[in-house]
Write a structure and sequence with these properties.
The complex is a heterodimer. Chain A is an alpha/beta fold. Chain A is built from 11 helices and 13 strands. The longest helix of chain A has 18 residues. Chain A starts with a helix and ends with a helix. Helices cover 53% and strands 17% of the residues of chain B. In chain B, strands 1, 2, 3, 4, 5, 6, 7, 8, 9, 10, 11, 12 and 13 form a 13-stranded mixed beta sheet that branches. Chain B has a 9-stranded mixed beta sheet with strand order 18-19-17-20-16-15-21-14-22, sandwiched between helices. By secondary structure, chain B is α+β, with helices and mostly antiparallel strands. The longest helix of chain B is centred in the middle third of the chain and has 54 residues. Chain B folds into 3 domains: 236 residues, no CATH class; 238 residues, no CATH class; 151 residues, no CATH class. Classes of the chains: A alpha/beta, B alpha+beta. Chains A and B meet through helix 3, helix 4 and helix 5 of A and helix 1 and helix 10 of B.
Chain lengths: 296, 872
């Protein structure tokens, strides 16, 4: 690998390069991330999708500073996640990231009211907890009416919106959400996602959502697909001049030129083991090797 | 935040609080109660002795006469002033303390105006403290001295008062004047008679001659002696013509000597004895007499053994209590984990997390510990440092354990761990640490055997050696934890081949269990080890006490007469209900050879005696082979073994031929005696009549009936039961045995709690697994059996290891613990009696399994369990 290829792209808000995470067990090693690359710009709203076991949650744990990668580069808001000290890590969790889990119950302490839950991060960080800020956040997320209720007295959607308020409480730069709508029906999902998008637009927070929910993944500007511990595809959406949403799926090309073909593409043309590439004027053609053999 | 968590997890908090409370109460109250029991035992020892044994008495033959009470009081003050501190503490100022002057062995040589009565002794005593202890029934107290003319010589006349009973026995009346002393004869005029106000007053134990007229048989005549009280004025005239002694008695205050200061008192006594021996104060040197040091030394020996045993069982109890508290703390931290993890993700630092979790534990434990500590003060007993230190242990455990656990589990980032994969291989560092512990325990056990536990000179134990039992327990626990999956995996393999799923699933789960399993093992194992150890020690004490009682009596009962026991009496004894056999014995002494050596001669039928002791721990040799008449065959003690034939003078003159040696005969002769055993008909062979002065009886015979049948003066009846009761009644024995019982019960309780808590900690995970299996068709019944099977192997294996350790501990510690003080004999070897230990192991295992069963039958709804399963 030449030095030029390892040069990080400095202006990305979230930058992962060749990220590896290995869980060692008795006799077996589970490689959860095997060289994952990811670039997310400041203020982006990105969905990460992928089949279960593809490494989505591991990625999110690494990004949230709760887990430590085995190798590679992971940088969020200019902080190197691999070389952080305990103090850095604490600062990182207090001021840089906010986290939302899938289970509504895990996001909130069940015996505190919504307002107290929102105030918790500030209190934990040793800052003066301001009630107005909490109320503003709850207002912003449309759950101001639940301020004095316990999580048990709220619906799932309300709980998740309070959870978003909690995640936003310390004015983080990045919000990481692990299947935030996983336990909700479609209508409530819509509300929760709208809340996340609102936070993204109004507060300029970078939002990374890990999701299975097509409702979510189809509404973000960019969807990153992960397969077998690697980023495999990206879907970009833009609104056409006529107002239609145009989604274009891209394969991810890493810095050494590796490319992961979508599985259904490979299936359709029965591509196996090797393909033939041909450089044309404005594109590269990919042909199944066996077809070529027949042609010859 | 801690308050909120405290409120939310009140169940776990209550468990922790309850456990710290009981531990604090037990650890504060038991040492207190034990100290009290030690003191009571000491009280029994001192009460069983008379004041003249326990009190300190300084005696001096006067050189310069002390003529006024003032001088005595000054000396008294000086002697008290010189007391070393520990002694001064236990010496009371009133009570039996007193001083005075007294003459000894003064014969009455005549009476004025009447006929002299021979064989009378009359001594004089000046005892200022006696005045208020007597009541005059005739005449008046003695006045000042005067003089009388006897045969042209002027003699000093003392006024004396005498105890009333002496008046009749010695023929005295008010006005009688006795001439006493052969040289420097004095006259003693009786002015009054008194009675003792309180005959039980210890004062009179020092002055028996003043309170009673002593009667002694000299040949066929009675010899009387009495001591009369005289006035202070007499001091001027009491001089070295008489055997005069001044004495100062320093009385021991009731309850002043305790288990804690006894050693210091013994030490100070030696110091004081040496100090007063150098002083004379104008007379001969003071002689300090007291039986107190000897009494205390014997007591301290028993105490030291008791304390060692109590240290071991209380240490075991403390260890188990701490283990259970750690388990409860673990339950609490498990319950708080979601909240603390959330706090951590939301930006709480490690100190904050640890602080919050620890604060919850502290809020739960501190009031509980204080309450237990306070309640312990209701238990009567002296307050020792252990009372304050004991409750600190559970408090520290309840706070330190969650702190350490939270710090470790919330340490970040979580390297190389994931909940869904099994634990990694143990680190080499951990294995090295475990091997070190096992090695240290073994070395310690070896040293303990070699050196003994309480062998150090100052009486205190070596802390390293005192920790050996705990180290051995820990080592066994570590080995058990390391090795228990192996037999289980074998069982899993066997169960896998069977068709039924429940044993396989249960055993597989048990074999994979980790983390949580360590603590129950650490609790069950010492619990059982301590209980078994206790039962082994009790068993050894009990057995040796029985052996000692057998050796003392020599049979179920023994009748010993000064004179011959008539044949008719023997017949009547034989016919008593319960009597199975009676062996008549003739016992006497004889001189052996010409050296003037005396030996005990026992004539009995050894074959019959063997029959009597069959079934008891005693053994007797076979009768010696016959020898040609007129010689008789004899067994002799080894010291006489050199004599092949010798002449004995009792029961008749005869020639004895040595046919073997014998070391003592239980109940008849000690092993150290020089002993000659002859056939019972030895007297007959010597041409005399057969006779018996001792009967050995086999069978459950009633003591009172036996006494009634024998009914001869000067006959001693001893039964095995009496002897056993006397030996077992030794102070402290019951304390030791009762403490074992209390600790065993407490340990069983803790074992039960430990198992239940361990199950509750894993409840959520188990419920998830069970609910999954229930959806696959597992019945409620099978679910219960699964839970039982999951925990049972661990309980059974831990119990087995505990049983084994409990059986090995006494063997390892035996040379270090001297039980002879309790048993009346040196305890050699612990009985390999598996009955009680097995019963204990089975009991404790059952109790623990019962806990598991109770947990298992507290059924949970499938739906609820499924919901539980989601939350992770």
């Amino acid at each position: 690998m030449s030095p030029s290829l390892t040069e990080p792209v400095v202006d990305a808000h979230i930058f992962c390069d060749n990220l590896v995470r290995i869980f060692k067990t008795e006799g077996v090693e589970v490689v959860a991330l095997q060289g994952l690359d990811l670039l997310i710009d400041r203020g982006e709203l990105v969905a990460v999708v992928g089949p279960s076991g593809s490494g989505k949650s591991t990625l999110l744990n690494v990004l949230s500073g709760l887990d430590l990668p085995t190798a590679g580069v992971a940088r969020v808001a200019g902080m190197d996640l691999l070389s952080m000290t305990g103090k850095d890590r604490l600062h990182y969790r207090r001021s840089i990231v906010g986290f939302i889990w899938q289970q509504t119950a895990r996001n909130l302490l069940p015996y505190l009211t919504a307002r107290e839950n929102v105030l918790l991060p500030a209190r934990l960080a040793g800052r003066k907890a301001r009630g107005e800020r909490a109320d503003e956040l709850l207002e912003l997320l449309g759950v101001a009416g639940c301020a004095d209720r316990m999580p048990g007295e709220m619906s799932g959607g309300q709980q998740q919106r309070v959870a978003i308020a909690v995640a936003l409480a310390n004015r983080p730069e990045v919000i990481l959400a692990d299947e935030p709508t996983g336990e909700l029906d479609s209508e409530t999902s819509e509300e929760v996602f709208a809340a996340l998008r609102g936070a993204n637009r109004e507060l300029g927070v970078t939002v990374v959502i890990v999701t299975h929910d097509p409702l979510v993944s189809e509404q973000v500007d960019r969807t990153v697909g992960i397969r077998d511990g690697r980023t495999s595809s990206e879907t970009l959406r833009r609104t056409s001049d006529e107002g239609d949403v145009i989604a274009e799926e891209y394969a991810v090309l890493d810095r050494v030129g590796r490319l992961q073909l979508p599985r259904d593409f490979m299936g359709a043309l029965r591509m196996e083991r090797r393909v033939r590439l041909e450089l044309e004027r404005d594109h590269i053609g990919v042909w199944p090797a066996n077809q070529e053999d027949e042609d010859e | 935040m801690p308050i909120t968590l405290l409120r939310v997890h009140r169940g776990a908090v209550a468990v922790l609080a309850l456990l710290t409370f009981t531990a604090s109460l037990l650890l504060a109250a038991l040492p207190k109660a034990l100290e009290k029991a030690y003191d009571r035992a000491l009280g029994t020892v001192l009460d069983a002795s008379t004041a003249d044994v326990t009190d300190l008495k300084l005696e001096q033959r006067p050189g310069r006469l002390l003529t006024t009470p003032q001088e005595f009081a000054e000396r008294d003050a000086q002697l008290r002033h010189d007391l070393p501190p520990a002694l001064r503490e236990v010496i009371a100022s009133g009570g039996t303390s007193h001083y005075g002057a007294q003459t000894y062995g003064t014969p009455v040589i005549g009476r004025m105006g009447e006929r002299n009565r021979p064989y009378q002794f009359f001594d004089l005593a000046w005892l200022p403290d006696a005045d208020r202890r007597v009541r005059y029934v005739e005449g008046s107290p003695p006045g000042p001295t005067g003089s009388v003319m006897v045969g042209g010589t002027t003699l000093v006349r003392f006024d004396v008062a005498v105890v009333k009973e002496a008046a009749d026995a010695m023929g005295l009346r008010v006005g009688s004047t006795l001439l006493i002393g052969v040289s420097g004869t004095m006259a003693a005029r009786v002015t009054g008679f008194y009675e003792i106000v309180d005959p039980t007053d210890g004062f009179w134990e020092h002055n028996r001659g003043v309170s009673h007229a002593a009667v002694r048989w000299v040949g066929e005549t009675k010899e009387y002696s009495v001591t009369g009280l005289t006035s202070a004025d007499s001091l001027k005239h009491l001089d070295s013509n008489r055997d005069l002694r001044y004495s100062w008695v320093l009385g021991i205050g009731g309850g002043a000597v305790t288990a804690r200061n006894a050693q210091a008192v013994v030490d100070d006594f030696g110091v004081y004895q040496a100090a007063v021996a150098r002083q004379s104060g104008g007379g001969t040197r003071y002689v300090l007499q007291s039986g107190l040091p000897a009494l205390l030394t014997g007591y301290l020996k028993r105490l030291s053994t008791a304390q060692t045993l109590m240290f071991l069982v209380l240490g075991g109890l403390g260890l188990v209590a701490l283990g259970v508290i750690a388990l409860a703390a673990q339950l609490l931290t498990e319950r708080m984990r979601p909240a603390l993890s959330l706090m951590r993700a939301r930006g709480a630092g490690l100190p904050r997390i640890v602080g919050t979790g620890t604060a919850v534990a502290a809020l739960a434990a501190t009031p509980a510990v204080l309450f237990g500590y306070g309640l312990a003060f209701l238990v009567p007993g002296p307050v020792t440092p252990a009372v304050h230190l004991g409750p600190l242990l559970p408090a520290i455990a309840a706070v330190a354990f969650p702190a350490a656990r939270l710090a470790l589990s919330q340490r970040e980032p979580l390297r190389d761990t994931r909940d869904d994969v099994v634990a990694r291989r143990p680190s080499p560092r951990r294995i090295a640490a475990e091997v070190t512990v096992v090695g240290l325990a073994l070395v310690g056990a070896y040293l303990l055997r070699a050196r003994g536990l309480t062998a150090s000179a100052d009486g205190g134990g070596d802390p390293f050696l005192m920790a050996v039992p705990a180290a051995l327990t820990l080592a066994t626990a570590l080995i058990t934890l390391r090795c228990y999956p192996f037999p289980l995996r074998l069982a899993v393999r066997l169960a896998a081949r069977r068709r039924r799923a429940v044993p396989f699933l249960g055993l597989a789960q048990a074999a994979r269990a980790r983390g949580v399993t360590a603590l129950p093992v650490l609790i069950l194992l010492p619990a059982l080890a301590v209980s078994v150890f206790g039962s082994m020690v009790s068993g050894a004490i009990g057995n040796t006490q029985r052996l000692a009682a057998w050796e003392q009596v020599g049979a179920s009962a023994r009748v010993e007469g000064e004179a011959d026991i008539p044949a008719a009496t023997i017949e009547r004894v034989r016919e008593l209900p319960g009597v199975e056999a009676v062996v008549p014995v003739a016992k006497g002494t004889t001189q052996v050879g010409f050296g003037g050596r005396t030996a005990t001669v026992v004539a009995l039928d050894l074959a019959a005696y063997r029959h009597i002791v069959a079934g008891s721990p005693l053994t007797a040799p076979a009768p010696p082979a016959e020898v040609p008449a007129p010689a008789v065959p004899a067994l002799v003690s080894p010291s006489l073994g050199a004599l092949t034939t010798f002449e004995v003078g009792w029961p008749g003159r005869m020639q004895a031929t040595t046919k073997g040696t014998i070391e003592g005969l239980p109940g008849l002769a000690y092993a150290t005696d020089e002993l000659i055993v002859l056939p019972y008909d030895a007297a007959k062979r010597a041409g005399l009549r057969e006779f018996a002065n001792t009967l050995l009886i086999k069978g459950e015979v009633d003591r009172d009936q036996l006494i009634k049948v024998v009914n001869t003066p000067n006959t001693l009846v001893t039964t095995f039961d009496d002897a056993l009761r006397e030996i077992a009644g030794t102070p402290l024995t019951s304390t030791v045995l009762r403490a074992f019982t209390i600790v065993t019960v407490a340990l069983a309780g803790y074992a039960l709690v430990a198992v239940v808590i361990a199950l509750v900690i894993g409840a959520a995970e188990r419920a998830r697994a069970l609910s999954y299996l229930r959806t696959l068709g597992l019945t409620q019944r099978q679910a219960r059996r699964l839970t039982m099977l999951e925990i049972a192997p661990l309980i059974v294996l831990a119990s087995l290891a505990g049983l084994l350790l409990g059986l090995v501990l006494p063997v390892a510690l035996a040379p270090g613990i001297d039980l002879s003080a309790y048993a009346g004999l040196p305890v050699d070897g612990f009985p390999i009696d598996l009955g009680m230990p097995l019963l204990l192991a089975a009991g404790l295992t059952t109790v623990a399994l019962l806990g598991a069963f109770t947990h298992a039958i507290a059924g949970r709804a499938v739906a609820g369990a499924l919901r539980l399963g989601e939350s992770s």
